């Protein structure tokens, strides 16, 4: 993955933690078009659940 962006951040360290965890993810398989690898844009929603 390249060019990681936070679209709607929460602040207070949450954004940094999301980026840290995303960088730890294994390599993704590229998309293919006509048998050739191409770049794909993916929006990955992430939910936080905080204790009450």
From TrEMBL:
Residues 2-50 form the TonB C-terminal domain. One of its GO terms (biological process) is transmembrane transport. Pfam families: TonB_C. Gene3D superfamilies: 3.30.1150.10. It comes from the Bacteria. This is TonB C-terminal domain-containing protein.
């Amino acid at each position: 993955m390249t060019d990681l962006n936070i679209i709607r951040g929460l602040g207070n360290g949450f954004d940094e933690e999301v980026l840290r965890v995303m960088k730890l993810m294994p390599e993704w398989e590229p998309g293919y078009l006509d048998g050739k690898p191409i770049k794909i844009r993916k929006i990955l929603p992430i939910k936080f659940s905080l204790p009450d």
